[in-house]
Amino acid sequence: MEKRKVIIDCDPGYDDAVALLLAAGNPNIEVLAITTVAGNQTLEKVTRNALRIAKLARLEEVTVAAGAARPLLRDQVVVAANIHGESGLDGTTLPEAEYRVDPRCAAQVIVDTIMREPEKTVTLVPIGPLTNIALAARLEPRIVDRVKEVVLMGGGYHIGNVKPMAEFNIENDPEAAYIVFEEKWPIVMVGLDLTYQALATKDVKEKIARIDTPCAQFLTQVLTRFSENYKRSKGFDEPPVHDPCAIAYVIDPSIIQVRKAPVHVEYRGQFTSGMTVTDLRKPAPSDCHTAVATHLARERFWNLIIEAVKNQ
Ligand code: PIR
Ligand code: CA
């Protein structure tokens, strides 16, 4: 099987870290670039975290580029510090890494990578606010026809997390999200409806704690702190590990059921800005370019993650 080529646009962040570990340790995926965006923490912090995770997971040769330091129109509000801590990865240990970032900005790296590779071979995997992706689409509109698909973690068709009906990655930069969803590239929205099925249960954590590799030990620290913080600030007994769900779909789409449906992002509503308005009233029209993730095969999902960290 040919490896699926991906660009991961992220804001690490505990669950972003898990997504990077999964991509690094799975043989069916090739990471062409890691780009960063302000989200869970400031751009500077998430970029440093990305570099250090890349070092741990032996992705050092992969291009890392920093992107948007704030949303398109709004100020950055670091509301996720209660979950991800001051550093974005509080309570974990990572190797120091040289601050070696590509001189180009993230949007440029996304454009150059997609234009360089053969048509419809690159999958974009945004797992933070969509600022860089919107900028890339405006910088070079031809990428919209050229990507294979966009598999993003964000949104939700029946629930939100930072507001009743808005998820963090969309709510953080709703204008960027609007731009991304209105472009006609194939989009798979892996939203909260799906990621709330990816809970790090006690059972899963015990299995991972028994694996004796550097990546598994780091993963144990990540899941421990993520659990504590989700419990303290949101009252969850087990934390939903959002971002690796998008990577898992790229590796093996049979792990996640999806349903075609039109999705539009609301950015003006008094109570609904940041909402991904999804039309599930009837079968989607044939030209519908968006799909939403509905059901996760949990056991197979966690096995992918376990296998990935066993390898390194
Ligand atoms: C997770 C996130 C932000 C806020 C909370 N409370 C929890 C981050 C994750 O990294 C994921 O990409 C997305 N945003 C989930 O909303
Ligand atoms: Ca994220």
TrEMBL record:
<feature type="domain" description="Inosine/uridine-preferring nucleoside hydrolase">
    <location>
        <begin position="6"/>
        <end position="303"/>
    </location>
</feature>
<dbReference type="Pfam" id="PF01156">
    <property type="entry name" value="IU_nuc_hydro"/>
</dbReference>
<dbReference type="InterPro" id="IPR001910">
    <property type="entry name" value="Inosine/uridine_hydrolase_dom"/>
</dbReference>
<keyword id="KW-0326">Glycosidase</keyword>
<keyword id="KW-0378">Hydrolase</keyword>
<dbReference type="InterPro" id="IPR015910">
    <property type="entry name" value="I/U_nuclsd_hydro_CS"/>
</dbReference>
<dbReference type="GO" id="GO:0008477">
    <property type="term" value="F:purine nucleosidase activity"/>
</dbReference>
<dbReference type="GO" id="GO:0006152">
    <property type="term" value="P:purine nucleoside catabolic process"/>
</dbReference>
<dbReference type="GO" id="GO:0045437">
    <property type="term" value="F:uridine nucleosidase activity"/>
</dbReference>
<dbReference type="GO" id="GO:0005829">
    <property type="term" value="C:cytosol"/>
</dbReference>
<protein>
    <submittedName>
        <fullName>Nucleoside hydrolase</fullName>
    </submittedName>
</protein>
<dbReference type="InterPro" id="IPR036452">
    <property type="entry name" value="Ribo_hydro-like"/>
</dbReference>
<dbReference type="InterPro" id="IPR023186">
    <property type="entry name" value="IUNH"/>
</dbReference>
